[in-house]
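ok new one. same drill as before - structure tokens go in, u give me an amino acid for every spot. 253 of them this time. try not to just spam alanines like last time pls lmao
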């Protein structure tokens, strides 16, 4: 049985961690499977958006501690924990979260661009409770995505928060009924797929990279990245389709 399932729907790649008996904890096989799936998402022009989810009603409970004690490496060279946290895809990635989103699982969700969560989902970084630290992005990304003092509370106490509290802090895009997170994530993904692929990729890049730009350089840096969009075939197609009142046919160039 594959420990990471990869499937496709209408240009959307669905990456499912498939270890429900272990609450989808990350072992070496999962890390390798996610890394391969993300590489496929970025390599193929017909795949436009990715969704990361977990089987059996749990997103991911983090690193498999039994695998850790066996000496299994759950990081991939150049890609980090679970083959993702240090090298997310250039294309949008949505987390569809049910159940526990803990430790490295939370760090996987933080790596995603959007999060859809079940009302019953629980988020937390409990590493300190086990004498460990959230070294796969939790201590770095969380303070950039929610207020610093709330992030500090979660990192230092290791306590969990609900999906609804996470939504109040702007960490979660949508909270849905249990069992429907993937369905809602697919709706978001389909809305993104409707848009120009070059424009989407460049927009994601600017939003992420601009967090480190100074006010004096930000428009120049943005122009360097976005200039090719305005002379692309897709830009002309988008304007033409609007004028002709039809859906655009994107070429990605």
């Amino acid at each position: 049985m594959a420990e990471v399932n990869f499937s496709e729907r209408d240009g959307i790649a669905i990456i499912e961690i498939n270890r429900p008996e272990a609450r989808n904890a990350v072992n070496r096989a999962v890390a390798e499977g996610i890394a391969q799936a993300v590489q496929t998402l970025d390599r193929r022009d017909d795949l436009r958006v990715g969704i990361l989810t977990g089987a059996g009603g749990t997103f991911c409970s983090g690193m498999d501690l039994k695998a850790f004690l066996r000496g299994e490496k759950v990081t991939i060279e150049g890609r980090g924990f679970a083959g993702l946290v240090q090298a997310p895809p250039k294309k949008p990635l949505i987390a569809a979260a049910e159940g526990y989103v803990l430790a490295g699982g939370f760090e996987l969700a933080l790596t995603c661009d959007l999060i859809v969560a079940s009302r019953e989902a629980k988020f937390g970084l409990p590493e300190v409770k086990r004498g460990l630290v959230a070294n796969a992005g939790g201590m770095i990304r969380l303070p950039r995505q929610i207020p610093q003092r709330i992030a500090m509370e979660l990192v230092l106490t290791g306590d969990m928060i609900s999906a609804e509290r996470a939504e109040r802090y702007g960490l979660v895009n949508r909270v849905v009924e249990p069992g429907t997170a993937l369905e809602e994530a697919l709706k978001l993904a389909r809305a993104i797929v409707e848009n120009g692929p070059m424009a989407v990729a460049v927009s994601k890049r600017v939003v992420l990279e601009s967090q480190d730009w100074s006010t004096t350089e930000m428009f120049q840096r943005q122009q360097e990245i976005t200039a090719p969009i305005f002379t692309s075939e897709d830009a002309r197609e988008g304007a033409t389709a609007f004028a002709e009142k039809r859906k655009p046919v994107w070429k990605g160039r």
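The mean pLDDT is 94. and btw The chain has ten helices and eleven strands.
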